[in-house]
């Protein structure tokens, strides 16, 4: 028994992979295969070693090339329609948090047993606890095929807009009619003038003030308006929104002092 244990330990050391961590994940491959097991770590406490993920499943060590994986699923269950609708149509990846928020970007690595290293669209690398992450989409197009989801029905005219946090309103170049339904897929982070280190997603922070363009939604949240009409909330929800007026669609951030803001949101706008 001792001899077998020492032999197994030697083999693990030889492969450079450690089984100390106990975080579980399901790897969904581009061909539809799914493999669930325990994440294992090698050089520098990295799960991705030499371009391959490492997983221990049913006593066997499995490895998957990064390009072969569509989704790394930490939470299990079935993605909601809103989550599927948020999947990018370009080559960008998507990280979905357990609170429902999403971030476009790409996975850097899984490290230290419980950390997801994610690089956002601005090129910033941040660490997130695996316990806070639901799924990481490496290949959203393959994920759509695996989930039998072809995207929003009757969607036309999708356009990617960069919303600068220092600019009052950004013209999308899209004209809408009252009652048109428009889908917004927003991602990214901005820093607002409330103080150093205060970053928010398109859902905004926690503070609301009467002096903001839309006093009903948090500071820094993504908002829209048609022409010069009253602003309306957008945030990170992905359900189609009916347009309140006819005219040119504008996007902005909910803040009354833009001078010290930094960063931008990326918004894919799709008319249905």
Walk me through the structure.
The chain is mostly beta strands and 272 residues long. 10% of the residues lie in helices and 42% in strands. The strands form 3 sheets. A 10-stranded antiparallel sheet has the order 4-3-2-1-5-10-6-7-8-9, covered by helices on one side. Strands 11, 13, 14, 17 and 19 form a 5-stranded antiparallel sheet that branches. The protein has a 4-stranded antiparallel sheet with strand order 12-18-15-16, with no helix packed on it. The longest helix is centred in the first third of the chain and has 14 residues. It is elongated and about 60 Å long.
How do you describe this structure in short?
The protein has helices at residues 2-15, 81-85, 140-146; strands at residues 24-29, 34-39, 52-57, 60-65, 69-73, 93-97, 102-111, 115-120, 125-129, 133-137, 156-164, 170-176, 181-191, 199-200, 222-226, 232-233, 241-242, 247-253, 262-271. It is mainly beta.
Q: Keyphrases for this structure?
A:
272 residues, mainly beta, Jelly Rolls, 10-stranded antiparallel β-sheet, 5-stranded antiparallel β-sheet, 3 helices, 19 strands, 42% strand, disordered N terminus
**Shape summary:** elongated
Strand content: 35-45%
Helical fraction equals: under 10%
Distance between the termini: 65 Å
How confident is the prediction overall: mean pLDDT? 84
Low-confidence stretches: 1-21, 150-157
How many E strands? 19
- How many helical stretches? 3
Estimate nothing, just give the exact number of structural domains: 2
Helix/strand class: mainly beta
């Amino acid at each position: 028994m001792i001899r077998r244990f020492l032999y197994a330990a030697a083999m693990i050391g030889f492969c450079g992979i450690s089984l100390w961590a106990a975080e579980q994940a399901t790897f969904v491959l581009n061909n539809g295969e799914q493999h669930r097991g325990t994440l294992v770590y090698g050089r520098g406490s990295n799960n991705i070693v030499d371009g391959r993920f490492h997983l221990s499943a049913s006593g066997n060590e499995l490895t998957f090339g990064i390009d072969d994986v569509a989704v790394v699923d930490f939470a299990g269950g079935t993605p909601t329609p809103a989550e599927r609708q948020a999947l990018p149509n370009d080559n960008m990846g998507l990280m979905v948090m357990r609170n429902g928020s999403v971030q476009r970007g790409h996975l850097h690595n899984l490290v230290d047993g419980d950390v997801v290293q994610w690089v956002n669209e601005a090129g910033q690398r941040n660490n997130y606890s695996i316990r806070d992450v639901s799924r990481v989409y490496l290949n959203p197009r393959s994920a759509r095929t695996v989930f039998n989801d072809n995207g929003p029905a009757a969607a036309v005219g999708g356009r990617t807009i960069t919303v600068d946090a220092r600019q009052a309103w950004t013209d999308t170049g899209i004209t809408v009619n009252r009652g048109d339904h428009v889908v917004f897929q927003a991602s990214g982070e901005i820093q607002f003038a409330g103080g150093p280190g205060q970053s928010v997603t398109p859902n905004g922070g926690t503070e609301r003030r009467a002096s903001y363009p839309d006093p009903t939604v948090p500071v820094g949240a993504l908002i829209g308006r048609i022409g010069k009409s009253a602003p309306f909330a957008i945030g990170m929800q992905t359900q189609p929104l009916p347009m309140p007026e006819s005219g040119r669609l504008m996007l902005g951030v909910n803040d009354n002092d833009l001078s010290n803001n930094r960063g931008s949101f990326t918004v894919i706008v799709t008319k249905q």
